[in-house]
């Protein structure tokens, strides 16, 4: 059954799963809380660094392998990780435990990153905040790229395969994708329930009018910090899952384009503030980008430009068209009703009857 699934479909699904986690975290901060978040890559690369630097060192220490700075030496790292993978292949409980430990640590550090980002968010607005958060992401990327002892520097490192128990062939990728989709749907459900909670309504009130929210007793400072902490934790989980899926980490691959601007494009297409729109936006762009990448060689006969730029041009045009003609996205955010619709209609009916009297 696994062998019958086309690689293109598998690629679409994995991009959809990871993209959904990142995009719903971005939607929580931008679409619901109204924070100008252009530093999504910061939390994503934090999670990826956790996956690259921590679980492997823990297991290396447990089994008497090099676990210090030498672990990140690319000439030694692949040998260490290969031995670790052999152990994980026959130890399901250890693999699952390591997976959840990695995700928990990634979420904690992602939340801490979000808390740190809340300080400039208190003092800066709009584009100034966006540029500042964007710079934070570049700073961490530069550190990971130049400090070899963290995660291999320019050479990168291999990441222990916590999914090796599934297998090593096509069944491995199919099984991992199912797990990633499960995590993506859990993130979607979590954020959706969060938005519908009193906390989510407070975030929307802050987004619509900070002054009005403050008048009604809402702590704006605390709300901004909480939104950035939750969003950062979710994005870090997405970054860790991506590193675990690919089995490697190299800082240069975590760019603004892939991990900040693409999620923004997904969100804008689907409909800012609407989580269901995130599903639509992420899936549509995942299909579009995968098809362009897969058939870019065949496209050279029909387009007058290099196919390597066609993806960026086409997606850029989609964003421009959406901004000009449908800025609310394909599925605009619907107003949240605090009372059932029939109850509201009953109240309105009574009001009209009272006015007639």
Task: Report on this structure.
With 357 residues, this protein is an all-alpha fold. The protein has one domain (2-269). It has 16 helices and 2 strands. It has helices spanning 7-32, 40-53, 55-62, 74-89, 92-123, 126-146, 148-151, 170-195, 198-208, 210-215, 220-246, 256-270, 275-294, 296-299, 307-325, 341-356; strands at 157-158, 248-249. It has a two-stranded antiparallel sheet with strand order 1-2. The model has no long low-confidence stretch (mean pLDDT 87).
Gyration radius from CA atoms, angstroms: 22 Å
Query: Please, how many helices?
Result: 16
Structural class: mainly alpha
Q: Total number of β-strand segments?
A: 2
Tally of structural domains: 1
Average pLDDT, rounded to a whole number, is 87
**Low-confidence runs (pLDDT<50, min 5 residues)?**
none
Strand order of the largest sheet: 1-2
Portion in helices: over 70%
The rough form would be described as globular
- How far is the first residue's CA from the last residue's CA? 71 Å
SSE string, helices as H and strands as E: HHHHHHHEHHHHEHHHHH
Largest sheet: 2 strands, antiparallel
């Amino acid at each position: 059954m696994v062998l019958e699934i086309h690689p293109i479909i598998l690629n679409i699904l994995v991009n959809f799963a990871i993209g959904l986690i990142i995009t719903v975290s971005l939607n929580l901060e931008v679409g619901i809380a109204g924070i100008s978040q252009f530093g999504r890559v910061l939390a994503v690369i934090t999670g990826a660094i956790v996956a690259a630097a921590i679980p492997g060192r823990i297991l290396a220490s447990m089994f008497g392998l090099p676990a210090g700075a030498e672990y990140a030496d690319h000439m030694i790292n692949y040998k260490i990780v290969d031995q670790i993978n052999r152990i994980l292949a026959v130890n399901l409980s250890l693999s699952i435990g390591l997976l959840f430990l990695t995700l928990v640590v990634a979420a904690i550090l992602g939340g801490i990153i979000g808390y740190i980002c809340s300080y400039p968010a208190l003092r800066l607005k709009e584009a100034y905040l966006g540029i500042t958060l964007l710079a934070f992401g570049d700073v961490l990327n530069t550190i990971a790229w130049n400090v070899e002892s963290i995660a291999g520097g320019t050479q990168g490192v291999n990441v222990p395969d916590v999914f090796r128990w599934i297998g090593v062939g096509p069944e491995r990728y199919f099984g991992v994708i199912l797990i990633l989709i499960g995590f993506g749907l859990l993130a979607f459900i979590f954020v959706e329930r969060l938005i519908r909670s009193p906390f989510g309504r407070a975030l929307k009130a802050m987004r619509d009018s900070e002054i009005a929210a403050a008048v009604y007793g809402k702590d704006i400072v605390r709300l901004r910090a909480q939104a950035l902490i939750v969003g950062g934790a979710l994005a870090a989980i997405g970054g860790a899952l991506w590193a675990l899926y690919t089995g490697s980490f190299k800082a240069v691959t975590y760019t603004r384009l892939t991990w900040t601007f693409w999620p923004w494009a997904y969100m804008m297409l689907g409909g800012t503030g609407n989580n269901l729109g995130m599903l639509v936006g992420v899936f549509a762009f995942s299909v579009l980008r995968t098809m362009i990448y897969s058939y870019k060689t065949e496209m050279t006969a029909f387009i007058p430009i290099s196919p390597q730029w066609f993806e960026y041009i086409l997606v850029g045009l989609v964003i421009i068209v959406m901004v000009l003609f449908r800025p609310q996205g394909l599925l605009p955010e619907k107003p949240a009703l605090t009372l059932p619709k029939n109850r509201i209609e009953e109240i309105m009916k009574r009001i009209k009857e009272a006015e007639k009297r």
